[in-house]
Structure formats: structure tokens, C-alpha cells
């Protein structure tokens, strides 16, 4: 019987890239020097709680939790699977906003690894 290692059940890895425009440079530098991964997660939530026209997105965002910040560009979040699916769908429709000073490169579902 094969064994699987559960990396993080019910989680998403949001791969971010720092924005390189001059306007975002000050925001990015401030985030880099004065903010933790949790604060970047809080900004991600705040940016996406503005979807008052899409209750599913605001409900999903409000029910996610900070799991980790890896290598200064991967935000790990955790939540119920149906909420994470709403976020994945929102990203494919370009409705999910990144934290200030970043852009979302991709979203990866974290499930199991051999």
C-alpha cells in the first residue's frame, strides 16, 4: 500500500511576484522591510473583502486563515475546501486581487504528495 504525506490539508499556495512599477516600489519596499507574512495575508484579505457584489468571494475570504509565508513570495492560506474553490475560481476569472505591491502569478492547491 502506498503512503502519502499530507502537506497541508485544505490549503492553497498563492504565488506572488513583487510589482516593479515606480508607483508600487514604495509600497513594495515598505512591505518588504516592515511587514510579516501575516500582514501581507491581512492586506490580501482586506483587498478582497471589497467584493460586496459577490457574497461568495467575501464569505470565502472571511473564512480563510494564514498558514505561512514561504521564501518571501508564497502565501499559504487554509480554509474549507468549498471556500478555497471559490478563491481558485475567482482567480481564473481575474476577480481575486493581490495584496498591495504584488501580483498573483498562480494559485496551487496543496493536497497530497508521494
From TrEMBL:
Molecular-function annotations in GO: RNA polymerase II transcription regulatory region sequence-specific DNA binding
One GO cellular component, as annotated: nucleus
InterPro entries per record: STOX1/2
Gene Ontology biological-process entries: regulation of transcription by RNA polymerase II
Protein name: Storkhead-box protein 1
Record organism: Anabarilius grahami
UniProt lineage: Eukaryota, Metazoa, Chordata, Craniata, Vertebrata
